[in-house]
Sequence to fold (740 residues):
Amino acid sequence: MKYNFLLLILLPLVSLNAQESDQKLTDSLQKLDQVFINTKVIFGSKYVAQNRSGSAYYISPKELDKFGYSDINRVLRTVPGVSIYEEDGYGLRPNISLRGTSPERSAKISIMEDGVLISPAPYSAPAAYYFPSIARMQAVEILKGSSQIQYGPFTTGGAINLVSTQIPNTFKGSLKSSFGSFNTHQTHLKIGDSKSQFGYSLDYLKNNSKGFKDLLNDLNTGFDKNDIVAKFRLNSSESAKYQQALTFKFQYSDEVSNETYLGLTQSDFNLSPFLRYAASQKDQMTNKHQQFLLTHEINFSNFLKVTTSGYYNGFARNWYKLNDVVFNGDVVKIASILNHPTVYDSHMDIIRGDSNSDADALLVKANNREYVSKGIQTKLDFHWNGEQIFHDLEIGLRYHYDEEDRFQWKDAYNMTNGQMNLTTAAERGSDANRISSAKAFAGSVLYKLKYKNLTLSPGIRYEDLQLQRENFGSDDPNRVGTNRSIRDNYVAVFIPGIGMNYKFNNQTSVFAGIHKGFSPPGNTPGQKAEESINYEIGSRFNFKGLRGELVGFYNDYSNLLGSDLAASGGTGSLDQFNAGEVSVKGLELLLNYDLMEKNSTFSMPITFGYTLTDATFENNFGSDEDLWGEVENGDELPYIAKHQFNASISLEHSKFELHLNGRQNGAFRTTAGTETINETNGIASNFIVDFSGKYHIKNNLSITGMVINMLDHTYAVSKVPAGFRPGHPFGIYGGIEFRF
Fold:
């Protein structure tokens, strides 16, 4: 029976017994309250995450501070069940998968900041070309399993909530600044305070680098990003009948990154992995993002609380990048050229700058888009209890609108002595001129019943979607509607789920769940949504100081949807296609132990995480544009590593901290198949070690240091969008941290 492997999860229950008193549990909870985050969160603390009736993980402020990563990929690799493939080496646009969902542009998971959907257009164009800066976050919450149905629309893999800097209870602030390899610089300033009825916080982050790739004439291949967040809170007096708070948040960021879709051929990567081809010299991403968020909270009593948020997210971007190469009238996309360089050897000579070209040989696409995401959501939390029973009812409602406005064109260049020269400036809107939009109403009900040591959490979600695409055509830049065409799709679905948690004692619990997985379809009329039935069973345990979690999961897709993204080698139409039945099963293991738990001066915590993901197609089909290749029953899914693990060890003292982290990124396929993974069909595994340290000169002043890729391992991270791409090489960074 295909679920038998889940029985292995129950093994940790053997020989575990009660050793801690209720008082010790209370003391532990009091300590956790020091880093408890109160508003716009899923969990708010490790204690709450560890007691949910489903798999959940909370990355605390202390954990984020250990390495001070500005790369979300490095942060999330510590969490079992999370799969990632990198692209630019800095985590600007991550590709994240939870439990085997398609990772391309993190388009199949619900990404939130402060409890609000943050992808540019989560329903109509969910590919996350914007991702919030992890360096300004106070905590990260990852939810997998049955109770994630509160946080749609994507309910198959899970949800990630990024918690930005909270308004502090008293006046405090900090200044962090670091500098290092590749002229990389980061400055982070934050300050805030609270009075009896007013609070505020201000947050400024600047992050820039010259980049680690080599482009002719030493051109900049890095990025420059600014991020500002301001929060203001008004709250009622302590004597008010109903405690209320009104919080306004404003966020703005801008980015200029000299990043390209153009990678390297296999032979060029093996010879010079950090090379950038001459034909990428004009490639550049520019974008701006802003968020307005107004949240009202009211406590009608100790048992009833209502939280309502209105939000607006705006994102404008133009990724100006090489898209096609023309030789003797043969127009070929760069992904095809890089995949078959000997077939298109003349095209490759132009890309490398080794030969001069005719006019209009290099077609550079202005991938210009504007996004809007706005809505209002409210959550009612009502709880009551009896002698040995506790009830909690959460009702959530959300009305949401988002759109993606594509207004794109392709300029044409020639190549002369390695330099690109503009030969034809295209008409704006001549390549794509359309608006995709979505109107969505969502409602969820989650009921939690706790009786003695048993917790049950049944719930249901409802999604009602109206998806539309309005295409004005390539000859109507003013959008007068001469050749306008409209297509629509409508979906309404109920998404049920139930979770269970049973606590044997203060050391051991078991949890399980089953829920329906859902991912919205595209706007093609009649296209069905992605659906699955998902199961999990797991155990949390503490045996003589060894704390851990072991989970088994099985996702049974009846209809997996693939997306035609340029980021994964497709045409970039964003149209979805049916990939049919897929089976994803796996194991997640997390262990924590302090080697010096009884030492009052030092602590030496160690962690180990492992993820097994076995994802296979259960039918035959052929995907458009060779996105996944020709698929046969039993083929493994591309872009998902089967094995990966992460291990860390720290030495902590009141005067200093030393942290060492090693992670094994397993090999993964770039086309579906069953044969052994090699350079032709996939990306090889790699083992990367990072190090960080702090020396506390005073209570409020510290010196910081970090080494990325300590062993200076050269490795490939992906072959998409077009060709091999390298991971971050050896880099060393130092800085100061001042707290006040």
Summary: Helices lie at 22-32, 46-50, 61-67, 72-76, 266-271, 334-339, 345-352. The first strand starts at residue 56 and ends at 59.
